[in-house]
């Protein structure tokens, strides 16, 4: 009874006395009601785009030993594209009827998103009592990526949880478990998160590769004798995945194909953007690798953004995997503390539709291009901020491998230590002179 009274006392309405309490009291109801709406109303409602039906039908075909990889790719309807390992893992979906299975899948994804939210808070040392908790929860569930992942009933919520587990385990140097988390995403979704293997590679965490690559291989071998048209994935589905389609595709090649951009110009844009990405990754590795959370979150964000923008297929709701990078805005040395960064983020995170009845052509262009421009602008902003810090540090003689390029004002707690280190050699030199 005592514990019940304590809990109810927490819900008792009272007047906030601090700014933090005001924000907490305002944001928690907004966040909780938004989550409830997105999960139980918006997601359960009918939507034209339906990612769940092809997955359910493929699971049902798998359980009944019928062909799985016989999709007609001449249609723009969602098709089943999971690899055999993914088919094996998601096949239990078809044990119950389609409607209840879809509701269960929505609920599983919602729970995965909530767990990922909690892990993201922990990654930046925030508690559930902090203002960051309801602010992040609200920001996630009002975004296009979470809203449409639940509405279209896609598996991205579970994959994002696996990604957050991977980042935590990599930072804790639990390499085999980190590889297992990433390996499950590769087994289900294929190459989308494979670029994240660059993080353990440059950190020398070789054991990650054992489970990250071993799990998909083992699961594919297990699925081989169980899928009647196993070879069709490699001969029918995989070639389609490597093609750049000109619909529902926000990658550069997707919009270039839709608008009829010349191939030489498309390749020029992709090569230039790839150059910016490589330069940004080099600066991060050389000067920020010891700032582990900053390095891992920004590197993961750059890699995923580059994959979506420069690869054959990029869809707006894949932006979910950029949440760790966006969360770095709470760090004093964040690359995102400027207005162009948030102009970019609005482009690929906002749930707003820019289709216009009055200005149809302009509205269509804004809607189709905003994600592509958003991803591109984010990579440009990151490159410019890192490049500016590099040039300033070079001008001031602060270029030392492994040492941060951040100016002193970003880390006032280190200023005294820096002063002591810098003054010691000068004193010695003056005495010898």
Structure report:
The protein is mainly α. The protein folds into 2 domains: 34-242, no CATH class; 244-408, no CATH class. The protein is built from 19 helices and no strands. It has helices at residues 2-11, 19-42, 52-63, 84-90, 98-123, 132-142, 144-151, 156-171, 175-189, 198-202, 208-223, 230-241, 252-259, 263-288, 292-310, 323-327, 339-349, 360-395, 415-432. Helix 17 (339-349) runs antiparallel to helix 18 (360-395). The longest helix is centred in the C-terminal third of the chain and has 36 residues, at 360-395. The relative contact order is 0.09. InterPro entries: GT87. One of its GO terms (cellular component) is plasma membrane. It comes from Nocardia yunnanensis. This is DUF2029 domain-containing protein.
Short description:
The protein is mainly α. It is 66% helix and 0% strand.
List strands and helices in order, with pairings:
Blueprint: H1 2-11, H2 19-42, H3 52-63, H4 84-90, H5 98-123, H6 132-142, H7 144-151, H8 156-171, H9 175-189, H10 198-202, H11 208-223, H12 230-241, H13 252-259, H14 263-288, H15 292-310, H16 323-327, H17 339-349, H18 360-395, H19 415-432
Helix pairs in contact: 2-6, 4-11, 5-6, 5-7, 5-8, 8-9, 9-11, 14-15, 14-18, 15-18, 17-18
